[in-house]
Amino acid sequence: MLLGAVGGKLRPLQSDVFAVTQAMLALPLRCLPGTRFRRGLHARKRIMAALREEMAARNHHHHHHDLLSVLMQRRQLGHPDALTEDQILDNMLTLIIAGQVTTATAITWMVKYLSDNRLIQDKLRAEAFRLELKGDYSLTMQHLNAMDYAYKAVKESLRMATIVSWFPRVALKDCQVAGFHIKKDWILNIDARSLHYDPDVFDNPTVFDPSRFDEEGEGDDAKLGRAQQQKRRLLVFGAGGRTCLGMNHAKIMMLIFLHRLLTNFRWEMADDDPPLRNGNVPRLKNDAPSAHTHPQFLIMFQIN
């Protein structure tokens, strides 16, 4: 999601992306030095400069096959609905923020939850080793679809972490919700975290339990099992016409990461109860440093 940035370019770009996300809900104090909003504006300028530099480089080398290249090619070919350069830049920034920060944070929490639940971790590891990988050990969609328990662990991690904890929406017409009269054009804020931790919706909501999604079924909520009702009430990626476009991409990334981690390492958290970092998404202040054991190595790393 960071356009292949490596080495010395990656860390500053990651820091700038985080600064922009921090500024999104900050007070818009544009002219006051040192504010979170002003730092975000400067970070956005640096990201845009890096994207323009990347676009200039790609004008001479067409070996990339990603969204940025597709948008650039449509513009170069004069396609009637092609985006302007500024529109391309804004779309890429949106994708980087929406896909890099949220998914990386979700993976961090997943590692933490599995470190705290060794029996679940072992069950996931057994499932991962049952996959028959061939050749270069690449995972296919067939493999991912066979990771049933891992998929439930991903959903449970997303529920407990609730990376995006609220969803602002505009009422399209007058309506009644739980006895409250909502008028057309009112702006509503859906609190996903409260729903995900409501004991009337999820049994033992503070317990990490992928098996809560074991039951499957079809039909109205009144006819569904408890697990299927809970599945329908997950608001991790929103709901309806504005459901997150990157939903399946994020789940696939988490499944691939989880498989690689489970089949190569065992791990434990360096801090069992790390503090939280203030921000728009719930992040661990120490970025989840972990001790990883390999058959021949002991590795320390942290997820950013």
Automatic annotation (TrEMBL):
Query: Does the keyword Iron-sulfur feature in the UniProt annotation?
Result: no
Keyword list (alphabetical) reads:
Heme, Iron, Membrane, Metal-binding, Monooxygenase, Oxidoreductase, Transmembrane, Transmembrane helix
Cite the Pfam families for this sequence: p450 (PF00067)
Q: Which InterPro entries match?
A: Cyt_P450, Cyt_P450_CS, Cyt_P450_E_grp-I, Cyt_P450_sf
GO: which molecular function terms?
Answer: heme binding; iron ion binding; monooxygenase activity; oxidoreductase activity, acting on paired donors, with incorporation or reduction of molecular oxygen
Source organism superkingdom: Eukaryota
Q: Which cofactor does it need?
A: heme
**Residues holding heme:** 244
**What are the GO BP annotations of this UniProt entry?**
brassinosteroid biosynthetic process; brassinosteroid homeostasis; sterol metabolic process
Q: What family is it from? A: Belongs to the cytochrome P450 family.
Q: What is this protein called?
A: Uncharacterized protein
Q: Give the species this sequence originates from.
A: Oryza sativa subsp. indica (Rice)
